[in-house]
Amino acid sequence: MFDTHELGRRPGAMKRLSRSVEAPGSPVLGIDGVIGVPEGAPVELDLRLESVMEGVLVTGTARATAEGECVRCLEPLTVEVDADFQEMFSYPDADDRGRPTAEPADDAEDDEDMFFLEDGLFDLESVLRDAVVLALPMQPVCKETCAGLCSECGIRLDENPDHHHDAVDIRWAALQGLAETVQDGEKDNMGGAEPGVDEKQEK
């Protein structure tokens, strides 16, 4: 939670702050199963809080180190995350000091997408999650030129650039076997005919 009491409610007031927080665990801060900031890892925040008529406008940058694996060769990798974000945290309704309740259904739906100050405090976790996910690569690679793994045996191609397998087209495999059978049969026939030819020659 971040406190805005020192900022006050006078429009135009501004405050800067830096803080190091621990990355939350479940769900992971990132893309689950692909890449993310490990639970408890430090996340460095640089924030600017600005008081406006509607509430407090929060602009900031989050820096952290995400861990995952290359989608091509499955080797572990790390990515430096530098995520920018900006979000408005609205003041609660001035009449009842609670979250505003809107009568029209459309307004109620809009409220679901809004963030509110609670007793002068705001929580950045959901905003931070969205910002980090957008800053991370959807398909992380250890390097752009990574050749990946051999589809036949799984060997890492970067370490074995000359590695290859003789390609066999399964559509021709049956015909290849038939051709070999025919060749073997011709040899047998030729072998059986030769003695007969010799016998005629002897007569």
TrEMBL record:
InterPro entries linked to this entry: YceD
One Pfam family, short name: YceD
Spans annotated as Disordered: 1-21, 90-109, 182-203
PANTHER family named in the record: LARGE RIBOSOMAL RNA SUBUNIT ACCUMULATION PROTEIN YCED HOMOLOG 1, CHLOROPLASTIC
Name of the protein this chain belongs to: Metal-binding protein
UniProt source species: Streptomyces violaceoruber
